């Protein structure tokens, strides 16, 4: 993490100093080449988890961190307020769940006294005189405001609410501070899951994601002791969660396998259609032998299960199914209660049922009859 002087420039809203740093100390934004970044909005210090879970965001070449953060907040339905001069987030509306459970690791260093607060918005100085929103890129707190930081492909951007220590509770090194592991690799894997959720859930990664989510938002589960005696243990815990989640390469493979399976299933179905679809029957005759009736006859098809008969008052349109013949060897049907002296058109299909699925032939020829 950066030292407190860097954090203070960002956090205490000193626009003049920030501009001085940009203009006279040669602090330049990093060059971007487009691609994608990984973004989170976090309220871990309040025990409220993620406001926005890890998500992938496509970036344009030269795009600033402020632009990406604004897009993510808007995409998730959050309105926000900024201070003037430089891009500094004053607060986010409707971002406070109202339930605060400060992690024990924070209470052990700063106590548990919280100032009163009302409403659902989460702004600077809420709950503490040292609180506010800070952004991090690749686990560092940049020394420029977010509108002066140019992102590059693969960056991890975190917008975090600090409660105590001017970011000390987020790992920024000043006076009292927490020693926290770098979670960026895990965040990337979680974002990959969310960007490809359908295939990841289908392939059984939901449990791994739930475990990673529970770990990431629980600071007490991975905070490193001041003497760093548990650092390797915490690193291994994060690595284990990371290993269980899919990578970009894994997702590509999963999608390719699904596409191949879908193509194979489609090919197999095409073979079934070719094998089981019966030939179109021939409608031999349609005669009105009795008043208000029409009798159809057609050729027999031993490979069919039955036949479906259609009727219309127009030759080329308006056909509706009037009956299904469920025996392949029945080759005649009489339609009753027709209107006298009216013309009707008939056609039919043969069908075959295999394992509960019906395969239909093309339509037969059309024949008309004038009803007696």
From TrEMBL:
<dbReference type="InterPro" id="IPR027954">
    <property type="entry name" value="Transcobalamin-like_C"/>
</dbReference>
<dbReference type="InterPro" id="IPR013783">
    <property type="entry name" value="Ig-like_fold"/>
</dbReference>
<protein>
    <submittedName>
        <fullName>DUF4430 domain-containing protein</fullName>
    </submittedName>
</protein>
<dbReference type="Pfam" id="PF14478">
    <property type="entry name" value="DUF4430"/>
</dbReference>
<feature type="domain" description="Fibronectin type-III">
    <location>
        <begin position="277"/>
        <end position="372"/>
    </location>
</feature>
<dbReference type="InterPro" id="IPR036116">
    <property type="entry name" value="FN3_sf"/>
</dbReference>
<dbReference type="InterPro" id="IPR003961">
    <property type="entry name" value="FN3_dom"/>
</dbReference>
